[in-house]
Design goal:
Blueprint lengths: L3 H6 L3 H12 L3 E6 L5 E7 L3 E8 L6 E6 L12 H17 L7 H8 L17 E11 L2 E11 L3 E3 L3 H9 L4 E2 L5 E2 L9 H21 L4 H9 L4 E2 L2 E3 L2 H11 L4 E5 L5 E6 L6 E7 L3 E7 L4 E2 L6 E4 L2 E4 L2 H14 L4 E4 L1 H15 L4 E4 L1 H6 E2 L4 E9 L2 E10 L2 E3 L14 E2 L3 H13 L3 E3 L2 E4 L2 H14 L5 E4 L8 E2 L4 E7 L4 E8 L4 H12 L4 E3 L5 E3 L3 H12 L11 E5 L3 H9 L5 E4 L1 H11 L18 H15 L4 E3 L7 H11 L8 E5 L4 H11 L5 E3 L4 H9 L6 E5 H6 L1 H4 L4 E7 L10 H6 L4 E7 L8 H11 L7 H15 L2 H11 L3 E2 L3 H4 L6 E8 L3 H24 L2 H20 L13 H15 L4 E5 L2 H14 L3 E4 L5 H12 L5 E5 H4 ...
Parallel strand pairs: 5-12, 13-18, 14-20, 21-25, 22-28, 29-33, 30-35, 36-41, 36-42, 37-39, 37-40, 38-39, 40-41, 43-48, 44-46, 44-47, 45-46, 47-48
Antiparallel strand pairs: 1-2, 2-3, 3-4, 5-6, 6-7, 6-11, 8-9, 10-11, 12-13, 14-15, 15-19, 16-17, 17-18, 22-23, 23-24, 23-27, 26-27, 30-31, 31-34, 32-33
Helix pairs in contact: 2-3, 6-8, 17-18, 18-19, 19-20, 25-26, 26-27, 29-30
GO molecular function: ATP binding; hydrolase activity; zinc ion binding
Pfam family, one: SNF2_assoc
Protein name: SNF2 family N-terminal domain protein
Length: 1078
């Protein structure tokens, strides 16, 4: 029976895999065994019905022929997929015919490997086996052949008469007889030493490699080729150059038995170094020359002469040695000496001798040395300018003979000597000029292109031989290419609170520095100085200066005065340049250092916390207070980005209380509508002396409030009312403006973002736990409010930072952005500053849907798959995402409760049942719960269950008025009810619900950061109990896949400040497609 190896052997890997798939899906029909008993015919259902014929050997265990009438069969070197499918069918039919108890080919091989197939006794333990090679070489000019023969055995070695037979037997697990009484038992085979083991692996790999190459041939030629291997022939293993190299590597320091051209065995070793050669040049017959090579029995073992035998050693030499040796070997292989006429001695000395001297010791008859000038080439190059380029005048020097090869093909005749020129050295030198595009002009080589001239001066001169001496004409700069001159800079803070940066460059005026910066901006590799020398532009200090000017949005004209004025916001970036090894020497004034210290090390600042809040503020909150104070003193802004629950509001209140002054302009806090009265309550609680006003009511009432701000310290308004009342706010002047939940302006095109950026103030601040949710543009938008222009225009920011970071994952761009923004972002995490905060334990609860719920889900899931495929093929990318989100939302609703959108549904909800059990257990244990859901209708269903159970609860969603929200929060924290139902969007931020110690996420939300924010309503400052967080997931639904993808995505944390991410927007097309796979 044909085995799997036979089938694989006649087809490519691709055809084999496709054929197996055809066979498994039942594509083979009408399989019939022909009258001769070893041929088969069948029909295979592909794109059409194809007819296949198979011919096996008489034994039925090898493929002899095959044919298929499909179009691809004529193009394949091996069998097509239809032939493979039929071979698999034949294999199965033969196995079925032999019966369940039949023995297949694999079983026969197994039994054959034992001496007694019935008793299956283990093979006796045998001695270690030696495999010993002999290397044979036949070497002649232009043809070198090498091969191995082997002996194998234990205490006695036997000649391997057929290497292929040895390989096939041992690889098949069969015993291999050595003589009448000696056998290698494969079951207990142990190799005696490293060389034997590695030689066996080497032989086996050569066999498999050849077989793999033959596998791509048609079946008949493949079967024939396996019988007539090009590597293995009887007792011989032929060696290609690569196989010979691999064999020598295995032998290493071991002795090798070598036979050269039928000689007796020689024991040789691999040796380091080079073989010894001696060339003697003597005078004979008057003026003729006789050349003799003493090679000390040198024999090339490879055609390239890179593997050589000499005096019981094998040498590996480089290609240059081999190239130089080849003509000598071809010449002296058949003779011991050659004779040259007197006329031919000149080209011999010029062309041949220089090459031979690199590989052999050379003796030249003294008579030739007197007649021929045998001195090495010494060249001189004279450099000068030629317009924008350079000119080089070469002079070849041989002793006392000098000539210019540009104008003289040969030097003038010498009456006393015949000049022997080193043609190879001359051509090597002239080739350098050719590579760099020089042309002949007068008596010089000229390159008029400036950039190519720079390349020659920086690279070409390095390629010249060491014997070349370079001279410079008087007009030519002694250092034609020099490094960037050292630049020193000083920075101070002037009376206008602007940074003033001055530059100084040794021996170069300031105007030239501006020109150098221009060249750098144009991304040139060099700058051409006024004295026509080149300055290389790759050094760090120039990059630092250019980035400084570019970051500040300045141009060349802004530097014309010799100094650069920058806003104070650039102080942190300048300080970073000075701290890092940028090659720029920057001296910093005392006031500059004070500004930097106050922002970079706020914990060391000396601002006085209001007395009433000193017992209240924790150390990290004092640091935040100092940081806000330092930024405000220098009219700068920043983002207070502390983790949820760390008291950002309290830090701002402390800052505003410390800044309270009689008659001072009021400060403005802009907040989401739901948090308006929360701010008033917090101010009243922590700083009752601050007069705070919430702008609310009708348009007329709000206008009246804004006209009567005398004596008001803090004005609190909402994003919505600000947009409607922008004309009123622009008439006011505010001291400080704070944005709470500043992610509301993450989209710079929204009315809210445009409105807040038009507010006049001394300093602006933002409060948010997630400055970035989706894109870096959100970060830019917040900074555009804090310090307009600091990160450049939106288009420039996108080009310089967002595209390189997001699309190319440019680490350098990410580091530069981080360097610019981090001094103005203060972010602390709970785990870092609240060591005493209790533990938070998160658990995933997997439940099953009810039977009726499962039916509804499966029916809708199948419809969703069809809808998904339609949207993928028809909708645009933007529309596709929206429609896919709608499909997924419906699936998530069914997993929660099909009654959310099917009014006639009464089949129950497995998730509601699971929640009910969880609530009962929690209430019995004295726990208090927050239950979050994206769907407000789901909260209504949960509320109905709670009412039926007689359980008291509060409920909060987007329709809950702000004052009512605050009242519900107070009552819950006082213990009025044990359960609080909360809409994820409406109550995920701004609430302090430390009265709860259990959080339940009824349905998973796309953005894990939003879920974390919701959890932080309970897990925050003031929490005294451990908090348990439960996520309810329905088994076998899209919820399970969403959760798995969320866990996978958690490792992809944003490079800047660890924000949340829009989960759906981050999914690849493959991941979205996986959501719709059953």
């Amino acid at each position: 029976m044909i085995d799997e190896e036979q089938i694989r052997a006649v087809a490519t890997d691709a055809a084999y895999k496709r054929g197996v798939r055809y066979f498994r899906r039942g594509a083979v029909a009408q399989l019939e065994r022909q009258a001769d008993g070893r041929s088969y015919a069948a029909v295979v259902a592909g794109t059409e019905a194809y007819h296949v014929r198979i011919g096996l050997t008489e034994a039925g265990d090898e493929v002899e022929s095959f044919h298929c009438d499909c179009p691809a069969a004529a193009q394949y070197l091996g069998a097509c997929k239809h032939v493979v499918a039929v071979l698999k069918a034949v294999q199965q039919q033969v196995a079925d015919d032999s019966g369940a108890a039949g023995t297949d080919a694999g079983g026969r091989r197994l039994l054959k490997s034992f001496r007694n197939a019935e008793q299956l006794t283990p093979a006796p333990l045998q001695e270690p086996v030696y495999l010993v090679p002999r290397l044979f070489v036949e070497s002649a000019p232009g043809r070198v052949e090498s091969w191995l023969e082997f002996r194998i055995g234990m205490s006695r070695l036997y000649v391997v008469r057929n290497v292929m037979e040895l390989l096939q037997s041992l690889m098949a697990g069969e015993d291999y007889p050595l003589g009448r009484s000696s056998v290698i038992h494969m079951a207990s085979l142990r190799w005696a030493d490293r060389v034997s083991k590695e030689l066996w692996a080497f032989m086996k790999q050569a066999y498999l490699d050849e077989k793999s190459l033959l596998r791509h041939q048609p079946a008949l030629s493949y079967m024939h080729a396996l019988q007539k291997s090009t590597v293995f022939e009887h007792k011989v293993m032929h060696l290609t150059p690569s196989l010979l190299a691999a064999f020598l590597a295995i032998m290493g320091e071991q002795s090798i038995e070598l036979h050269i051209d039928g000689s007796e065995a020689i024991d040789v070793h691999l040796r380091e170094g080079k073989p010894q050669l001696h060339l003697d040049v003597s005078r004979v017959g008057g003026q003729n020359g006789c050349i003799r090579l003493d090679d000390g029995d040198l024999t090339p073992l490879s055609e390239d002469c890179c593997l050589l035998y000499q005096s019981e050693g094998i040498y590996r030499v480089d290609e240059a040695f081999g190239r130089a040796l080849q003509p000598l070997w071809q010449t002296f292989a058949r003779t011991t000496s050659v004779q040259l006429s007197h006329a031919d001695m000149t080209p011999f000395f010029s062309n041949i001798l220089p090459a031979v001297e690199k590989i052999a010791d050379v003796d030249v008859d003294a008579a030739f040395e007197e007649e021929f000038l045998l001195v090495p080439l010494a060249a001189e190059l004279y450099l000068d300018y030629e317009g924008a380029g350079i000119a080089v005048k070469p002079v070849f020097v041989y002793g006392h003979i000098r000539f210019n090869p540009v104008v003289q093909a040969a030097p003038e005749a010498d009456a006393h000597h015949l000049l022997v020129r080193d043609s190879e050295a001359e051509q090597e030198l002239l080739a350098v000029f050719a590579r760099y595009g020089f042309t002949k002009k007068r008596d010089q080589f000229v390159q008029i292109d400036e950039e190519k001239s720079y390349d020659f001066l920086t690279q070409g001169l390095e390629e010249l031989p060491e014997s070349v001496e370079i001279f410079y004409e008087e007009s030519f700069e002694r250092r034609p290419v020099r490094p960037m001159p050292k630049v020193t800079a000083g920075v101070s803070v002037n009376d206008m609170d602007l940074l003033e940066v001055t530059f100084n460059m040794k021996d170069v005026d300031f105007a030239e520095l501006l020109d150098i910066l221009d060249s750098y901006r144009q991304k040139k590799r060099y700058h051409r100085m006024k004295d026509r020398s080149f300055v290389t532009l790759g050094d760090q200090q120039l990059r630092a200066i250019a980035e400084l000017v570019e970051n500040a949005g300045r141009k060349k004209k802004d530097l014309a005065s010799g100094k650069l004025e920058l806003p104070l916001s650039e102080a942190m970036y300048l300080d970073a340049l000075a701290r890092e090894d940028q090659g720029l020497q920057l001296s910093r004034s005392r006031r500059f250092r004070e500004v930097v210290r106050g922002i970079r090390q706020p914990q060391e600042a000396d601002y006085e916390v209001p007395v009433s809040l000193q017992p209240v503020l924790r150390d990290y909150q004092v640091t935040g207070f100092n940081w806000l104070s330092s930024l405000a003193d220098h009219h700068l802004g920043g983002i207070l980005a502390d983790d949820m629950g760390l008291g950002k509001t309290l830090q701002v209140i402390a800052f505003l209380l410390a800044r309270k002054q009689a008659g001072a302009k009021p400060s403005l806090v802009i907040t989401p509508t739901s948090l308006l009265y929360n701010w008033l309550e917090e101010i009243g609680r922590f700083a009752p002396s601050l007069k705070a006003l919430a702008v609310a009511g009708t348009k007329a009432e709000r206008a009246a409030q804004l006209q009567a701000l005398a004596g008001i310290d803090v004005v609190v308004t909402t994003y919505d009312t600000l947009k409607r009342d922008m004309d009123l706010y622009q008439q006011q002047e505010f001291r400080y403006v704070f944005l709470d939940e500043a992610q509301h302006i993450k989209n710079p095109a929204t009315q809210s973002a445009r409105a807040v950026k038009r507010l006049p103030s001394e300093s602006c601040f933002a409060l948010t736990g997630t400055p970035i949710e989706n894109t870096l543009t959100e970060l830019w938008s917040i900074f555009d409010f804090l310090m307009p222009g600091y990160l450049g225009s939106q288009a420039k920011f996108k080009q310089r930072f967002e595209i390189p970071i997001v699309r190319a994952e440019d680490k350098k761009a990410a580091a530069q952005l981080r360097q610019r923004v981090m001094p103005f972002i203060l972010r602390r995490m709970k785990k870092d500053v609240l060591k005493e905060l209790p533990d938070k334990v998160e658990r995933k609860l997997i439940g099953e849907m009810t039977p009726q719920q499962t039916k509804v889900y499966r029916a809708y899931f199948m419809k969703s798959q069809r809808d998904f495929m339609r949207e993928v093929s028809l909708a645009s990318p933007g529309e596709r995402r929206i429609k896919i989100l709608a499909i997924l939302t419906r699936l998530r609703q069914i997993a929660c409760d099909p009654a959310l959108f099917l009014e006639s549904y009464h089949g129950g909800s497995g998730k509601l049942d699971m929640l009910e059990e969880l609530i009962e257990e929690a209430i019995e244990g004295g726990h208090r719960l927050l239950i979050f859901s994206q769907f407000t209708t789901m909260l209504a269903h949960i509320a109905e269950r709670l009412r039926r159970k007689g359980l008291a609860y509060f409920s909060l969603d987007g329709a809950t008025p702000a004052l009512t929200r605050m009242k519900l929060v107070r009552e819950f924290n006082r213990g009025a009810v044990p359960i609080f139902l909360i809409s994820l969007k409406a109550g995920g931020t701004g609430l302090n619900l430390t009265g709860a110690d259990m959080v339940v996420h009824f349905d998973p939300w796309w953005n894990p950061a939003v879920e974390d924010q919701a959890t932080d309503r309970a897990y925050r400052l003031g929490q005294r109990n451990n908090v348990q967080v439960f996520k309810l997931i329905m088994k076998g639904t899209v919820e399970e896949k969403i959760y798995e993808l969320q866990e996978k995505k958690k490792s992809l944390i944003d490079q800047m400040i660890q924000p949340g991410e829009n989960f759906l927007a981050k999914l690849t097309d493959e991941e979205i497609r996986a959501l719709f796979q059953g």
